[in-house]
Amino acid sequence: MNNISGRPSDHSGLKPGRPPSKEAYKTLRELIVGSDIADIKRIHARMKDPERRAEDISQVLPEAVILQTRQDNRMVPALRSTVEQIIQLSVKRDPKPLVDALFPIIGPAIRKSVAEAFRQMMQSLNTTLEYSTSLKGLKWRLQALRTGKPFAEVVLLNTFLYRVEQIFLIHRETGLLLNHAVAEGIAVQDGDMVSGMLTAINDFVRDSFTPRKTDALTIVRVGETTVVVEEGPHAYLAGVVRGNPPVRLRLCFQEVLEGIHLEFGRELIQFDGDTAPFETAATHLAPCLLTQLKPRTRKTSPLMWIILLGILGFSIFWATGWIRDQMRWSAYLDRLRSEPGIVITSAEKRAGKFRVSGLRDPLSTDPDTLISEAGLDKDRVTGHWERFYAMQPSFILGRAKHLTRPPSSMTLTLKNDILVARGTAPITWITRNRPILSTLPGISSYDDTQLVPLYTDAMILEKARLQLQPPASVTLDVKNGNLTVAGRAPHQWILNLKSTGARIAGVNTVQSEQLIDMDKQEMDEIGQVLKQTAIGFSQGITLAGPDDTATLNKVADLIRRLQILAPLFKLTPQIKIMGHTDMAGSDDINHRLRQARAKKVRSILVEKGVSPSILRVPDMKNQEADYMKKVKTILLTGRRVTFEVNLLQKR
User: Which pTM was predicted?
Assistant: First the structure.
């Protein structure tokens, strides 16, 4: 709420005798421009937004260009470069729209140039024929003087006999009839049927006999009737002519077709099947209904025939040679353009000789070999070719094979710019050519993961020794990629051989039949020694004699060694300690004596470091009776302790 008294409020920050604070200035700023701060922020945000700034400029840009153009021509050099680049990009992307736009303009210009050349030729022919003395020649000369046309042109006009009976205007894309004009006294056929059949024939000829979709049917002859077809970008004319149509008839068709495209261009592009907009096109078609009457024949002077035949023979001879050379030259250029790896930049004929220049990949066909195939003389053809590397897949692949000379046991394929090697190849070839193939132009990456390297036996043996580190008691040998291992080796080394031997580069198989497991052999030997060892006792006592102390030490050492070896094979040793007596004494006394002797040996072995879990003292009460029944002679050696070794599979 405003302070009515006119004095500063308490919260203004103003106090007598002190300068205004920042809060006071802020309050004063809000009072003065508070309502405009939001507008200023919106304007600032709009200036920083590229899309909104572009939208604002687009609203005034057309008017600004118009005003600047009215004032001076500074806009022209500013836009010239941009417009030229736009036209160049448009032509590179799709030249058809520009060709369609220039069609109504460029046609008259070309015809004017052709007409001038044709007029000069007529004047030259007129000079040749001006000494003719035939009556028909004199009459045609008078006609030329009367009409103002060259004499040779009058001769040509009196030679051709034709009549245009019907003219059809047909839409190019749909093949529908747009308009139809008929000469007087001619029976009218169904125009839609004729246009449909003509379109079908045109499509049949294009699809069956020409590989280029731009080619089209231009003339159809049926007896004395000729159908002359002239195509435009969006429509074409088909004239039914009885007789021999002259060249100027096609020129007439072209002029009429250009006028129709100029007047009905938009309707032709947007044609949807409605022919109503083209009803007024009949005024364009009427001038095409031309008629040339046959003059009365009269006797021609023999001299005239001789002169004409001489001129005609010379013209045919010269034209035949010129046309032949042009056809052969064109065929040679077409062959060069069809050859991959060859790009023609210029081709010309000068002073009776041909010159062609361009770019050529070293792996492409030699252009000189194609000269004779085209029927040209090598002395008349000069070629200048700059080296370049074609990026077609066939050339990239051929270049890779040319540089690396891959063996026949492998293949190189190129797909999506990735060079893939498959098969088998020497490791030296792989390591030598991997950098070359990885950096080859036109290749994004090189994949040789599917290529199996081939090693020599010496290389494989070297790798096997480095990776396996065999003990001195083991020998290694490699033949044809097969690794043979012989000798004696620890069990752990044999396990390593089985797990890594086949993965050594170049090793096909590992043959270890001649390899002896030292640990397994030692474990078997310990079992045999323990089985054959006996601790002797005196009659009636349970203590071993002093001579058996060394035997007990040996047994303890063997069992401790067995404790180390058995886990290597995932086995648990179990030692049975069995006490024995002779036949003296009762069975009870002998049984207690047997058990006491076995337990005594067990306790001694435990004291010497043998694990008690693997030592068992079985009850020999019944077993001893069976044993003694088999013994026919009582020996003193019955007072002993023996050992039985069992190796149990770990659970």
Answer: 0.36
